[in-house]
Amino acid sequence: MLLALRDADSDPADFPSDAFMDEPDPATYRQARLSPNWRQWHKAIQSEIDGILQPDRADPVTAFPPGSTVLPSKFVFKLKKLTDGSLDKFKARCTTRGDMDRTFYEEAETFAPTPQLTTFRLLLALCLKHRLMPYHYDVSQAFLQALIPEDERYYVRFPKGYIHPKGYVGAYMKKALYGHRTSGRLWSEPAHRFMTDRYPTLSRSTYDECLYIGWIDTQLFIVLIYVDDFIVACADELSRARFHTDIMSTFQATYSGVLNQFLQLRIDVQTETLPTGESYPTRIELSHERSITDLCAKFSIDTDKQPPRSPMTEGLSLPIPSPDTIDRSIETPLRSLIYSLLWLARTVRPDIYYHVTYLAQFCHQPTVEALTAAKRILHYAYSTRDYTLAMAIDSAAPQLTAFCDSDHAGDTATRNSVSGYCLYFHGMLIDWWSKKQKSCTALHSTEAEYVAMSEACTSALAIYNTLTEFFPSDELITINVDNSAVQTLVTQRALSSKLKHIAVRYHAVRNWCQGPLRKFTPVWIPTDDNQSDIFTKALPITKHGVPIIDKFTARLLDIKDRRVKLVEKLRAAEAQQLHAQQQQLQQQQRQDKIVLASLQRQNLIG
After folding, report:
1. Rounded to whole angstroms, how far apart are CA atoms 123 and 107?
2. Nearest Cα to 435, choosing from 420, 413, 456?
3. Rounded-to-integer distance, Cα 343 and Cα 124, Å
4. What angle do CA 578, 582, 588 make, to 5 degrees?
5. Which residues form a coiled coil (predicted)?
6. Residue 567 contacts residue 549 (beta carbons within 8 Å)
7. For residue range 309-351, what is the model confidence (pLDDT) as tens digits?
8. Alpha-carbon distance 39 to 503, whole Å?
């Protein structure tokens, strides 16, 4: 398949008819050499090696000193595409086998901070609330801009098969290389130093070390660092221009403009323009449409077949794997599929989160039933691939609103309950999860709801602390629960004797809902209005469709016309079935009247 070339840095002479052959990414250097795109891969390889062998980064060697530790390396090839499927660039990353470095490292020496996805969504929500435009910068070969201490430097052998034009066989690394255990930590230090030196008015978050928030000339300024990506949110062009100058003079970076692609996510920022000419975002949509399509091709999903109307059959309970049902031949594809679905569910598809986490427990004991169920989820995700996580500010909504729920003894294998939770910031969904209550086995539904509420408050409190660290507020978090007994238990002063056997860690929720440490206001809601119900069990088709669209996905997912028409079709079918049943009942009543009249006439004649 031929696709149009979109890489401005590539030489058109290397491409036949300004096109390239779309193929799977090569796994080895040999496969790259045999690829029809070898000229493009070769150019990407030379660009990577030239970047490594810069004088301040590494010293090339033609032979390694006797007795020295030499780490092998390999090329990781990636044909990077934009969200619309067009080519971005050919990427060849030289990575070392850091696991073969026998030097002992403490945990503190290898830890590298990485922001949570919740923090990323919170940043987008803050952009909508404070009218900040998000911009994207990508640092090229970021790890190679981090200096290695002299006592930790190492030799690296070039990948097998690669021959350098000058006869070099490897290099003595002065700066970090991808793949080594300490590279992430080494890179985080110059990145943090850049922020503190250039922007002393910004404060580093205590709860997420990759988030920086502050004010520059009375203007709010936010920076989120995700490895080699800098997401900058600001209101005026002067602040962005200053940051642009600073980062370009410090690192080798690429400016991508307004944020439109991040972590394979397609990001659509809808804006309005002020009379002054400055723009601000009014709505942000996140989607994974292209990734879902690629996954269907990878796992051979027949998308022409009738798609399932829900991710999982209601009440599905797969049997406990036994030696006869475990199939190790499908372990790798099952793991790959589950991990891919987990990424979709954790980023923009909370409607499949419970279903994927349920199947994740079969990764170490793979069965055909589990693989079939996982493919059903992927097929459902493909049929609803136009779903987007839509974010728009709701000024009437509280700052933070949480929902929690549980399914008592929902796991039929262990009889553990399942907790579900979701959190809104001014009406925008920013956090959700579904997990088993592994540390206890609830004796009744109230206990399961009590534990679920405690876990939900813990997660919501982390977001609350991050916000109040920079934006002080006394507003309490509204937490919705559909069990009135739990609402009473967390607000009364005396601890019920029926809950004294629960672990102490879960009783912290009582301090958060009353007294001087109060942070939450518990509110009872009907079960049908509990938006976290979808994270506790596989709902029936009617509940996963109509109520979820009417209540849950009003903020969670932006449903396109095709999905709405499907729901209307389901409603019409149900109405038609009900009408047919009523007609059948009326006809039966008429027949009964005829029979009764006939019997009465016979009695009169007799």
Report:
1. 29
2. 420
3. 19
4. 145
5. 556-591
6. yes
7. 899 998 888 888 989 999 999 999 999 999 999 999 999 999 9
8. 63
Residue 88's identity, in one-letter code, is D
How many other C-beta atoms are found inside a 10 Å radius of the C-beta of residue 11?
10
| Two tokens, residue 418 | 């399942």
Tokens of 492: 């009364």
Q: Are 137 and 248 in contact (CB under 8 A)?
A: no
Q: Which amino acid is at 229?
A: D
- Residue 349 CA to residue 332 CA, distance in Å, equals 23
| Separation of alpha carbons 440 and 579, rounded Å | 48
Is the confidence at residue 29, as pLDDT, over 90?
Answer: yes
Q: Are 174 and 185 in contact (CB under 8 A)?
A: no
Lay out the sheet containing 229-234: strands in order across. Answer: 202-204, 211-216, 219-226, 229-234, 133-139, 253-258
CB < 8 Å & 24+ apart, contacts of 189-194: 189/146, 190/145, 190/146, 190/147, 191/142, 191/225, 194/246, 194/247, 194/250, 194/251
Alpha-carbon distance 473 to 428, whole Å? 18
Q: Whose structure tokens read 């696709």?
A: 3
pLDDT 10s digits, 58-83: 999 999 999 888 999 999 999 888 87
Q: How far apart are CA 552 and CA 357, in angstroms?
A: 20
Residue with tokens 């004294």: 500
